[in-house]
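debug: dumping io for the single-chain case to check the tokenizer round-trip. Nothing else runs in this session.
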Amino acid sequence: MYTIFTLRCLPDLRIAPDITHIRKLAVSADYPRDLIGYGSNPPHPRWPGDARIALSFVLNYEEGGERNILHGDRESEAFLSEMVAAQPLQGQRNMSMESLYEYGSRAGVWRILKLFKQFDIPLTIFAVAMAAQRHPDVIRAMVADGHEICSHGYRWIDYQNMDEAQEREHMRQAIQILTEISGERPLGWYTGRTGANTRRLVME
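debug: decoded output
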């Protein structure tokens, strides 16, 4: 027996302490770094019904937003794929890698959505905005099924060396695109490969 709760259906739920002071902190290039956290006194989340554990199911939707020379990139995608030890191909398409991504958007995502609908379990969708642009119908289907659309950035790329102005523009585009497609401004954010400015820009 289990009960499904979401933050949408529990708007007054307070599962974390006040983080106002955290928002004022920038990512430092030097010490002090927070290596202590809450130490031996972590806050109690106080889940509904005195539940001892909370499960969050997340589906990443990145297909069509990954590195690809068709997207103006210099190399193919290689990060976090089923192709172990894959290396980016400079100036070339990696057709095997593209096939993995294309299966996800053509078939895999629909199988996952069908399964979670069958058991009436909500998902958080980490949606890359460029991927959403290329397949808006799947995003609308996610929304129709009651899933939450969380921004996964404009592209599924490494933001480590991107300049601040361009990264800020990517964030603006991501919010605009996902809002237009889903009909609701995304409240969450997850950048997969962050840079030194990412955290501060998200807080803006």
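debug: round-trip ok. The chain has six helices and three strands.
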